[in-house]
Write a structure and sequence with these properties.
The complex is a heterodimer of chains A (263) and B (69).
Chain A (H helix, E strand, L loop, with lengths): L7 E3 L2 E3 L3 E4 L6 H11 L3 E8 L10 H4 L6 E5 L6 H15 L3 E4 L12 H13 L3 E6 L3 H10 L5 E2 L13 H14 L4 E3 L5 H9 L4 E4 L1 H4 L4 H21 L20
Helix pairs in contact in A: 1-9, 3-4, 4-5, 5-6, 7-9
Chain B lengths: L1 E4 L2 E4 L5 E3 H7 L8 E4 L2 E3 L8 E3 L3 E9 L3
Parallel strand pairs in B: 1-7
Antiparallel strand pairs in B: 1-2, 3-6, 4-5, 4-7
The chains are: A alpha/beta (263), B mainly beta (69).
Chain lengths: 263, 69
């Protein structure tokens, strides 16, 4: 956890909300709008795609949600090579006029696990070009250290495969990454895997700076309610991490005084 | 003028050349936030007026859609 009282610092900007949300897979534009508002998120992710020439781009996310109030984080989802990811990032910057980018170089179709080596290469190129780079990686301490050393604005290890809802599968790895990133002053954002509010709280309790999610909210039976739940969970987990947990012990320790017992 | 736009061959009015601004307009995208690549090189919005598209060129026009990962 980087300096937790000043908000989430990414590049030159600081954000109050520690929940980042995706804009895909909502049942309707109206629900997307309401869920985004309920999440309290300030940063939303978007994908870069060809316009559909037959439909005059009415499927553009701009038509679905008023994005002017959000900071947009274009991703390179769907890219499987460094070249594609870099090209997509450049196009995204041109559409959105912002320098934030979430790098994804996907290496495996079934798990959507990232190609960490390719991600490092893409990060190098994009950082040199002035991007504020947020890389999506596996929960690998060494990879995160390399990315932090390169100058990434955050590292984004997965909790579990994208869209799986399996939660934080390896809390020890996430904790190791959190501790290592403190030395670099680089925030840790768990990206992918969250299924329910307690998963998000857990990530924050482990000391993460933020959580990015999409399916857990968009795919819930009531996305608006789940967005609200996630907002509260992120806040609760963050407060708990700052407060500091008690040590775990095998046996009971009474919390009422032993003096003055009757009999 | 025949162009390859987003992977599809497309006949775009008249012969000769036209500016990127005009092409975007002819495609009905003037009010959409898009980015344009001409023969794999990004054309910055500020250069749309003076950048000419000609027969046989390959154009990519992208925008933002909903997405997470």
């Amino acid at each position: 956890m980087t300096d937790s009282n000043v908000g989430l610092k990414l590049g030159l900007r600081t954000f109050t909300s520690r929940l980042l949300v995706g804009t895909g897979k909502y049942p309707s534009a109206a629900i997307a709008r309401e869920a985004l508002a309920a999440s309290g998120a300030e940063i939303v992710t978007v994908a870069v795609r060809r316009v559909n020439l037959d439909r005059n781009a009415e499927d553009s996310v701009w038509h679905q949600v008023d994005l002017s109030r959000y900071t947009l984080l274009p991703n390179t989802a769907g890219c499987s090579t460094v070249e594609e990811a870099v090209r997509t990032a450049m196009l995204g910057r041109e559409v959105g006029m912002g320098d934030l980018v979430k790098i994804e170089v996907i290496a495996d179709a079934k798990t959507l696990f990232p190609d960490n080596q390719g991600t490092i290469e893409a990060a190098k190129i994009l950082i040199a070009d002035g991007f504020t780079v947020l890389p999506y990686v596996t929960d690998d301490l060494v990879v995160c250290k390399k990315l932090a050393a390169l100058g990434c604005a955050a590292v984004m290890p997965l909790g579990a495969p994208i869209g799986s809802g399996l939660g934080i599968r390896n809390p020890v790895n996430i904790r190791l990454i959190v501790e290592a990133m403190v030395e670099f002053g680089v925030p840790v954002i768990v990206d992918a895997g969250v299924g329910i509010a307690s998963d998000a709280a857990k990530a924050m309790e482990l000391g993460c700076d933020a959580v990015l999610m999409n399916t857990a909210i968009a795919g819930a039976k009531d996305p608006v309610k789940m967005a609200h739940a996630m907002r509260l969970a992120i806040e609760a987990g963050h407060l708990a991490a700052q407060a500091g947990r008690i040590p775990m012990k095998l046996y009971a320790t009474a919390s009422s005084p032993m003096e003055g017992l009757i009999g | 003028m025949r162009l390859t736009i987003n992977g599809e061959d497309k006949d775009v009015s008249e012969a000769g050349t036209m500016s990127v601004t005009r092409l975007v307009g002819e495609l009905g995208l003037e009010n959409v936030r898009v980015a344009v690549e001409l023969n794999r090189a990004i054309v910055r919005r500020a250069s749309w007026d003076e950048t000419e598209v000609k027969d046989g060129d390959t154009v990519e026009i992208v925008h933002f859609v909903g997405g997470g990962s």
